[in-house]
Design goal:
- The protein has 638 residues and is of the alpha/beta class.
- The protein has 3 domains: 15-251 and 386-420, P-loop containing nucleotide triphosphate hydrolases (Rossmann fold, 3-Layer(aba) Sandwich); 260-376, Pre-protein croslinking domain of SecA (Alpha-Beta Complex), CATH 3.90.1440; 428-603, P-loop containing nucleotide triphosphate hydrolases (Rossmann fold), CATH 3.40.50.300.
- It contains 25 helices and 22 strands.
- Strands 15, 16, 17, 18, 19, 20, 21 and 22 form an 8-stranded mixed beta sheet that branches. It has a 7-stranded parallel beta sheet with strand order 3-4-2-5-13-1-14, sandwiched between helices.
- α22 (545-552) links the parallel β20 and β21.
- α3 (43-59) runs antiparallel to α4.
- 42% of the residues are buried.
- Keywords: ATP-binding, Cell membrane, Cytoplasm, Membrane, Nucleotide-binding, Protein transport, Translocase, Translocation, Transport.
- This is Preprotein translocase subunit SecA.
- GO terms for molecular function: ATP binding.
Length: 638
């Protein structure tokens, strides 16, 4: 499998737009003209026009298809108006055309990416049997598909969404639709499930295969996905295609053997006696653990009399896992305990992943740490990275509010250019100076003070945190000032849609992890706008400024007033994990209240160095994959 999409593949049918470097003014004016021609038609006549255009497109020559696409884009725009009650902005029409060429579209938050995504899917449905629309989670997939369904219905396009619960029959039915919505990971997992089935089918005897064919039960009938991957439209493209590109999607099954809890309990006890710096070291920022030879020998001596001890892996792995569980992995940061079970937290979104587990005994080590009943270990059966799965599609398009800083990676890995779409109205967002503090406590107090003052004038406030633990700490700081906030953190998430819809009301205070950082729309009411619009508080900086920009983009949308401010503490994980000198500088220059001077320049330099490091790591992984591909191809030839 290649590590970049072959240049020989047709990235999209819009060759004339490529040759002319996407002449946006021609495209927009032509679509607008086509749109106006449908305005006087009845809904029934509009449906007949849609059927006619699709039939003419199928029968037309390549040159004729360009004109038919423009006509269909105009029809889509008219259907948007009749279904949702508003006309597309020119910049949205521009984005639809650009994304349909196989580009990554940078649109600022609040500019209507949801409806644009649906329009792109409808336009690409002219060319292929099925278009996959990939969202960051199932909530957004359901919401977007339901919201845009009236448009697809008017166009006569079938549409479906992947079920949230495992239901192969429902999934197969959804994949037969022309437009399929689902969380990106679910498309990948369905592919992996099919690969497992195909491997099992290959093990069957030839006679069984012949009998199945005679009965009409051919092997493909039980697969979830169609064999071909035509078009994928990726929401939050930078997060999915870059940040999480090398994160493996893994299907694991319960292990055949029940593991003995005693080795994990012994390892926990021994690890607690080890001293960092003497018996082991933790290399930052990778957080790799190196146990000294003397500590390993001592650990082996302590189990010498346990002759009946059943080990599933080398003893030093138990020790390393115990150290990682005790020292590195933090409750309400990396995982939560719900229903007496360890549940992992997605570090990109802040969402809880109830069906995910750590591998190689680490999950059991964390269970022992939390004094929980140890669950059977799971064994990985099949895996694929998101990047390699996406490379199976003939054409990819994507949308995000932050793409320019990773434009080279989009081009090199996916051969997708970046097209920046201007905002429909001039932004009124006011970003206040970043404030720096010696520790989390002084930072939390300053945030509580600032929130109290803003709350007096009924300004709505969204407080964004990196972790669940941080959200709970800020909530406690606000309570100390008799300020009540609504929590949206994956544990106390309630009805996410309801919480988000109320976050723009005058006087509303919402604390949210990254789960509200992407894909949600907070609409301030008139009183809130009069009070200054939504104010966004960023409690801690992220590794990538792109994620920070996504958070502050929750406010001041569509030319509305709004503001944002970042708060940084010397003990924030971003500063401490990367062995920066910045924490000491902040502490040295701090006043009696714990607040220091402005270190924004130094913070930006740190984030840039981290982004470069992450880029280098991704490039190394790509090179490794290419080497593995060459080895695999060589073996297959032999």
């Amino acid at each position: 499998m290649p590590n970049s999409i072959s240049a020989s593949k047709s990235r999209s049918p819009f060759s004339w737009l490529r040759r002319q470097a996407f002449r946006k003014h021609h495209w927009v004016s032509d679509v607008r003209q086509a749109e106006s021609s449908f305005a006087s038609l009845s809904d029934a006549a509009l449906k007949l026009q849609s059927d006619s255009i699709q039939e003419r497109y199928s029968a037309s020559t390549r040159g004729e298809r360009d004109r038919v696409r423009v006509e269909f884009a105009g029809l889509i725009a008219e259907c948007v108006f009749r279904s949702l009650g508003f006309r597309l902005f020119d910049v949205q029409v521009q984005a639809i055309g650009a994304a349909s060429t196989g580009a990554i579209i940078e649109m600022q938050t609040g500019e209507g990416k949801t409806v644009v995504t649906g329009c792109i899917a409808a336009l690409r449905a002219l060319d292929v049997p099925s278009v996959h629309v990939s969202t960051t989670n199932s909530y957004l997939a359901d919401r977007d598909c339901d919201e845009l369904a009236p448009i697809f219905d008017r166009l006569g396009l079938t549409h479906g969404k992947l079920p949230q619960q495992s239901d192969e029959a429902a999934s197969r039915l959804a994949y037969r639709k022309q437009i399929v919505y689902g969380p990106g990971y679910q498309f990948g997992f369905d592919f992996l499930h099919d690969q497992m089935k195909l491997r099992q089918q290959k093990k069957r005897r030839l006679g069984r295969e012949v009998i199945n064919r005679i009965r009409g039960a051919e092997r493909g009938n039980k697969l979830i996905q169609p064999a071909d991957h035509h078009v994928a439209i990726i929401d939050e493209a930078d997060s999915v295609m870059i940040d999480e590109a090398m994160t493996p999607l893994i299907i694991s099954l319960p292990g055949k053997q029940t593991q003995d809890p005693v080795p994990y309990q012994l390892a926990k006890k021994i690890a607690a006696e080890l001293v960092e710096g003497t018996d082991y070291t933790i290399e930052l920022p990778e957080k790799s653990i190196e146990v000294t030879e003397s500590a390993n020998l001592a650990a082996h001596e302590k189990i010498a009399h346990h002759r009946d001890l059943l080990l599933a892996r080398p003893w030093k792995s138990y020790i390393s896992n115990a150290i990682r569980a005790q020292i590195i992995l933090q409750r309400d940061v990396d995982y939560v305990v719900l229903d007496d079970k360890i549940q992992l937290v997605d570090q990109y979104t802040g969402r809880i992943l109830p069906d995910r587990t750590w591998q190689s005994g680490l999950h059991q080590a964390v269970e022992v740490k939390e004094n929980l009943t140890m669950q059977p270990a799971r064994e990985s059966t099949t895996t694929i990275t998101r990047q390699r799965y996406l490379q199976m599609y003939d054409s990819i398009a994507g949308l995000t509010g932050t793409a320019q800083s990773v434009a080279d990676e989009f081009k090199d890995i996916y051969q997708c250019p970046i097209v920046v779409i201007p905002t429909n109205r001039k932004s009124q967002r006011h970003i206040e100076r970043t404030r720096f503090f010696t520790d989390a406590a002084s930072k939390a107090k300053a945030i509580a003070d600032d929130v109290w003052h803003r709350h007096q004038k009924d300004q709505p406030i969204l407080i964004g945190t990196r972790t669940i633990r941080e959200s709970l700490e800020i909530d406690q700081a606000l309570r100390s000032r008799n300020i009540n906030a609504v929590l949206l953190n994956g544990v106390q998430d309630g009805d996410e849609a309801e919480i988000v819809s109320q976050a723009g009301r005058a006087g509303a205070i919402t604390i949210a992890t990254n789960m509200a950082g992407r894909g949600t729309d907070i609409k301030p009411d008139d009183r809130a706008l009069a009070a200054g619009g939504l104010h966004v508080v960023a409690v801690s900086p992220n590794e990538s400024p792109r994620i920070d920009r996504q958070l502050i983009g929750r406010g001041a949308r569509q030319g509305q007033p709004g503001s944002a401010q970042f708060f940084v503490a010397a003990d924030d994980s971003l500063l401490t994990d990367f062995q920066s000198s910045l924490p000491n500088q902040i502490k040295r220059d701090a006043g009696a209240d714990g607040e220091s001077r402005d270190f924004s320049r130094e913070l930006r330099a740190l984030q840039q160095s981290i982004e470069q490091r992450n880029f280098d790591r991704r490039q190394q992984m790509i090179l490794r994959d290419r080497w593995m591909d060459s080895v695999r191809e060589s073996i297959e030839k032999d």
